[in-house]
Design a protein that fits this description.
With about 375 residues, the chain is α+β, with helices and mostly antiparallel strands. Helices cover about 30% and strands about 25% of the residues. The chain has ten helices and 16 strands. Strands 1, 2, 3, 4, 5, 6, 14, 15 and 16 form a nine-stranded mixed beta sheet that branches. Strands 7, 9, 10, 12 and 13 form a five-stranded antiparallel beta sheet that branches. It has a two-stranded antiparallel sheet with strand order 8-11. Strand 1 and strand 2 form a beta hairpin. The longest helix is centred in the last third of the chain and has 21 residues. It is elongated and about 80 Å long. The two termini are about 25 Å apart. About 0% of the residues have low confidence. It binds zinc ion (ZN). The site of zinc ion (ZN) has 5 residues, from loops.
């Protein structure tokens, strides 16, 4: 492959096609990970792309293949995820480059420190007429392990709503204020947190998490007057997710009113679900079936680079079983046999794409 590092720090290798004017298939995942992580999240997908090109043994296809190892997918340093894949689709602007890390160093400066030139970001963009994007990634959850299956085809990446919910009451003396005269923000929040879990359990596929709670003033002998809770809600269907968020918001108001509290609801972001391309999903399904493995389809509850690429070109993803569902942890692993199945499916996928993409009428449109 012809290899370069682009201005966002993505490492990219191109396996040329039989013709110079051919379209290009992108195969990628991310190179970075989180602190105290495992060895498979992200980088397995990059290695598998390289391995697939290697398996061609120099054979030229009707399309070129570019393997992309994306930088900064997790957003650990700057609190902003997907910087590498955003650069590839032209979604890195001056405001993003000016974002600072904890020490005040900006993304543009960090790129310079790494020996790259942030002013050349436009060179990172994918060029004309992409054929599609394929990503291999560990599942990072327990579903395939429970099913006893090696791989799954991803049909969509779920949508996500994130909000800060603050219950406000009155701080007071823990010894002198009778129970019926209290406006305890933390007990109001606690009732609502139980309600979040109960409601999420009633809706298939919905996950809701209250991952952080801060009570103030935060002393053992003071009734909490303020309590802030984070809410993270995800579902593959946007209408279902939005309806669930509305219900949780009503429940917070009802609980607050009954307890003499007020509630402030601050939406942080709402990301719509991102569907993978139906034709590529079908092609990947056939590719898995031809390996003899069961072609399970599932939604991804986590965000991936594929959701950044999907609005710009047909995209597809294949999950590899994660033993025990353990990820973002040193015990994260993958089974050699599962990776072999995924690689065989990848080879089948390339074969079918090579058969269909030589015609004048391209089989895939975004
Ligand atoms: Zn990842």
């Amino acid at each position: 492959m012809r290899v370069r590092v682009d201005a966002a720090g993505n490492i990219r290798g191109v396996h040329a096609a039989a013709s110079d004017t051919a379209r290009r298939l992108y195969i990628g995942s991310h190179l970075d990970t989180v602190p105290h992580a495992g060895a498979f999240d992200g980088v397995l997908g990059v290695m598998m792309g390289i391995s697939l090109v290697e398996s061609l043994r120099g054979r030229r296809l009707p399309f070129s293949i570019e393997v992309m190892g994306f930088s900064e997918e997790e957003g650990v340093r700057f609190g902003i995820p997907f910087i590498g894949s955003r650069a590839v689709v032209g979604d890195v602007d001056a405001a993003l480059l000016a974002a600072p890390d904890a020490s005040g160093r900006t993304i543009a400066q960090a790129i310079g420190d790494f020996g790259l030139d942030a002013s050349r970001m436009a060179d990172a963009r994918v060029t004309s007429n992409p054929l599609g994007y394929l990503e291999f990634h560990i599942e990072q959850g327990p579903v395939l392990d429970h099913l006893g299956q090696p791989v799954a085809i991803v049909d969509r990446i779920v949508g996500r709503s994130y909000a800060d919910v603050t219950f406000v009451g009155s701080a007071g003396h823990a010894g002198t204020t009778p129970m019926d005269a209290r406006k305890d923000a933390l007990t109001g929040a606690a009732e609502w947190i139980g309600c979040v879990e109960a409601q999420a359990r009633q809706i298939g596929g919905l996950v809701a998490t209250t991952g952080r709670i801060d009570a103030a003033p935060g002393a053992a002998n003071v009734i909490p007057g303020h309590c802030r809770v984070t809410l993270d809600v995800r579902h593959g269907d946007d209408a279902t997710r939005n309806a669930a968020v509305d219900r949780l918001r009503s429940a917070a108001r009802e609980i607050a009113a009954r307890r003499g509290l007020t509630v402030e609801w601050l939406p942080r972001f709402d990301h719509a679900a991102v569907a993978m391309h139906p034709a590529l999903v079908a092609m990947l399904t056939r590719a898995v079936e031809r390996t003899g493995a069961t072609a399970t389809t599932m939604s991804s509850g986590a965000g991936h680079d594929a959701m950044i690429l999907a609005p710009h070109m047909p995209a597809a993803m294949l999950f590899v079983r994660t033993p025990g569902g353990v990820s973002h942890h040193p015990d994260e692993s993958a089974l050699e046999g599962d990776v072999a199945v995924a690689l065989a499916a990848g080879a089948n996928f390339l074969d079918e794409l090579a058969g269909g993409s030589g015609s004048e009428d391209p089989p895939l449109q975004p």
